[in-house]
Structures are given as structure tokens and as C-alpha cells.
Design a protein that fits this description.
Shape: globular
Number of strands: 17
Structural class: alpha/beta
Strand order of the largest sheet: 11-10-9-12-13-14-15-16
Distance between the termini: 56 Å
Number of helices: 14
CATH superfamily of the largest domain: NAD(P)-binding Rossmann-like Domain
Helix content: 25-40%
Radius of gyration: 21 Å
Strand content: 15-25%
CATH topology of the largest domain: Rossmann fold
Mean pLDDT: 93
CATH class of the largest domain: Alpha Beta
Amino acid sequence: MPVKLVPQTISRIDKLLLDRDAARPDESRERRASRALGIAVGDDAMNSYGLQLALLTAVNLSARTFGNSTTVYLSADLADCRNRVPVARGVTLREAIVDLGGQVETAVAVTDERPYLLLGNVEPVGRALRVTFDGWKIAVGPALELGRMKERGYCPLAGAAAAAIGLEEVFAEFASINIMATRRVVITSLWRPDLEGADPDGVGEPITEVPNELAVFGLGHLGQAYLWAYVALCHPDPATAKVMMCDDDALELPNLETGAIASAHWLGEPKTRMAAQWLEERGYRTRLLERFIDGRFQRIDRDPSVALSGFDDNCPRRWLSAASFAAMFDSGLGAEAFNFDTIAYRGWPNSRPAADLWPIETDDELKAREARRRKILADGGYDDLGEDECGRLRLAEKSVAVPFVGMYAACTVLAEVLKAINGGPVFSEIKLRLCSLNTSASPARLAAEHAAPVRGATLQAARADW
């Protein structure tokens, strides 16, 4: 007789296959672990911030997505070079890789016949999937079809976003989400997502300033990815930067896979305390709000003027939009097996009213969602999840979440912040489906071709050595 499983501890990644295929979560987890990813890196990453960020982001996302150690193939000299990226602890690149759940292999080349990620000037063998970028433009595809871009460091978020797409391609093939995954070329731009991938304007321009203060609301899947992306900007003087964080939840076991910075050491503890320690270890100042956001919440003068919204509900989004921030940058993710990879970005202020941007579910929509949940429960996949019917019902209501989706969303949001404070092309809305990206333009609403910098934002000169 199958071992009964505890609904409260089920992975949000395994829930994707549970809801879609009625697959037992323990079998799904074993299958994911057997797909541990390989990453090959060339020696030119030694002096490239962007390549190192792409590598370490990929290691982190892969370890969480597949629940197994990522193997990084690189030379001994590269393994022992200086780690340039503050998101991972470790003086050397080897130490940073291990800190994020990877393992280093310097003696052999990649022998896996399955797709693996390739970064930098290493020769591709087998089914190498090149991960490359230039300025704000990102490209991932079979290395024999996709050449390297110039990899200019106009915006370091491009490296992290490219890593997220690389993981998306591998996972989409693994989970049979898209038959073309790992066999197609994906090209897009954080500067101009509304352009075709081949358009040279997607490369964008170098940024000159980064935000010195941010307020982050919600520290789940999205909020933790926001922090990773912010620290990836490599603030020139973190001791002068301040991050205010708001959340009222404690860290739970499923959060370890979906959260970019989540650590088992903090299970059962407030997410705010965990995030504060992570930031403070990297030199940032923090302020914490451990409360629920409601319609009475208002920003005060000592708070940052720019807010990042990581909520999974439209009510707090509306409340935050009325809380007197100079600007609010919000992203929402799909939560079910059929739409977990959808990303909807919305900026505020906006030409559309908050009620249109963040509508409350109608009775018909609630009934349709309930009908889908009942169908999933009736399909048999939940039969082995213990005798606690309430637990099974609560699990059915939980979101499907895979970490590379939140990371790409975070890069999209922080890219809009950077453009808003540097006078770049700012978008009021962006919609995309991560597992269906190719070289086509994404639906997006351009708010201003060259927007005036956000008023009241505290800024710092950007680093020149990205």
C-alpha cells in the first residue's frame, strides 16, 4: 500500500504534475532529482560579472527546481578565481557554487546526452543550450544555432533573466510542457519587450543610477526573487542602501524550493527576519514591517518612495496603489498547472484605474476556479495524500510555483524600476508566457519612450564594472 503523504509539505513544483497528471508527489520528486542539471562555463567568466551572475543564478534556480545538486563543469583556474557576485557567499567561484547547492567538476567534460546550459567561451558538445545576452537583450537556444552575443554589461539583470529562461527551457522539456523547448531559439529584451527579438533597439542603453531605497511587499516566491535581483545590481555602497520589507508569514517547507533566498535554517520563523539577515550579510540596511496590508495602510516620509509588490491577491495591490508611494511596480504570476508560467507586470501610476488593473474575481470566476479544483481532487491524484480531507482541500487551493518564473518576473520588474529612474522606455503593462517565449514581441503597453525619472526616489551612481 502506498505511503500516505502529508499535504502541508507537498512541493509547489510537484503540485504541477499532481494537478496535471495525477502524479504522486514522491514519485515526481524522485523524477525531478534524477534530472539534475549540468552547466559548462568558459574561462572568460573569470572577468565577467554578467557571466558569473548568470552562472550562479542558474545554479540556485536549478538546485531548487530539480531538488538535486547542479554540476558545474569549469577549469580549475576558473573555479578558484574571485567571485564577483554578491548574491552568493564565497570568496572564490567554487565556494559560491557550493554555497548555492552546486558541485564543481574540473576533471571531465559534460557527458550527459540531455540538454545542459553553456556559458562563455567553452566549446559546445552534445545538446548544449547556449545562454547569452547583450545589454538588455537575452538569448537562449541550441549552441549550434545560436551564436554568442556581445555580452555588454549595460544591465546585469540580463544575465539573471537569461539564466531563468535557460532553466525554463530545460524544465519545459523535462515536464513535457512545450515540445519545442531546448530545440528553439528564444530572444527577448528587458529594455523593449514589445520588439521582435532581432530588433537592435532591444539592446538598450547603459544605466547610470540604481535605487538606493526600496520597499518590498510580500516575501514569498516573487518577493525573494526581487531581493536577489536587487542585490544582483551590485550596489556600489550597500551600507548606504535601505530595504524596507513587509510580510506577516513564517517560512514553510514548500517555500524552500520556490524562494530564491529561502534557507531551511529559518523554517517556522518570520520571512522578514530571514530576508533581513540575508541582506545584512551582504551589507544592506533593513527595516521590517510584520503586518497585514489593508486599506488603511499609508506610506510615511521615512519610508522608501518606490514599492515593489509581490502579493498574490488583487486587494492588497489596490491598497498599496493608494498608499502614497511615488511609484509602485507590481507583478502577478499564474497559480495553476495550466498557467503557472504566466507573468503580468503593471506599473503605477497608470493611465488605467486600479480597479481595472487589479479586478476582484467575479462570482462566475470563483465558481469556475472552484470547479477546476473539484475536478483535480476527483481525478485521483490526491487519494494518497492522507485521510485529512481539510488538508487535501487546502493543498488544492495552493499555488503551483516554479522558481525560474519568479526570477524572470523579478528581472522584468527591476528592469522597469531601472528604466524609470534612468529615463528609459517605461511600460505600464507587460504580459508574457515564459514557456512560450520565442523571438516574437510580447504584449506590452509603452507608457513613455523616455520617461522622466521617478520623483522622490533616492539614487546611487551605478557600478561601471558590470
